[in-house]
Write a structure and sequence with these properties.
The protein is mainly α. The protein is built from 13 helices and no strands.
Amino acid sequence: MPIYDQTYRRHEARAPLRTIRFWPITREALRLLLQKRALLGLLGLGLLPFIIRAVQIYVVTRFPEAGRILPVDGRLFGEFLNQQIGLTVLLSVFGGAGLIASDLQSGAILVYLSRPLTRRDYVLGKVGVLLALNLGITLVPALVLYGLGIAVAPQEYLKWERAWIAPAIVAHAALIATIVSLVALAVSALCRSARIAGVGFVGLFVGLEVARGVVGMMTRRSEAHALSLINDLRIVGNRLFGIADGAVSVPPVYAILALAAVLAACLAVLRSRVRAVEVVG
């Protein structure tokens, strides 16, 4: 009986699972992370600004004259989201430092990619963890805050001229979560130790902030403010919500270009580091 050669055929998952193969990676990583008290503490800390802003809305609705010093228009939501940027960085340190670094150290990444998973599935599964955490302290509370504003002060928020607030909240929260998550994941992909990745991630943000100050003092040019990722996110947020910040006078186009460059760099790092073959140099 003749034996026929058969070329390699990639194993395919069942049809209903083909588009969500990344979900088990996200689900299991979130389950393990949410068992850590430090992470739960950070999530709880992220709710404090929400409570403060909710009280602000209530006070202004009861005492309208307080609106002169406590704005409850779109600026409230922009200031809230800008305030949450620092928390997303801390949350990403605890939640994202070891997402890829630990897999590289243990060789688990080879196990992942030897299964019916593509590189895209793996990256989506890992970045989904950070997106869930970061959107949980930006988008979710901001939308709840907006809903609370509609409930207690419909005359302020149910106006056509303020219909832009909800889309602006979604856009800014998505931008913050995407940039911070991808940077954390890219740094993790460059390391083989979760500790080193965490230190490197924080050092990147702090170093860029220091560089912004030094270059700004030396050149006296406002464009130097675009060197800071946190500052770039705030600049975009200020533009979206009409916040006037005299301390930052950078044209939004510089911040957008800087963020686009960071996004491209992160994707390039992930593409080069996430692979099913270990390269020994």
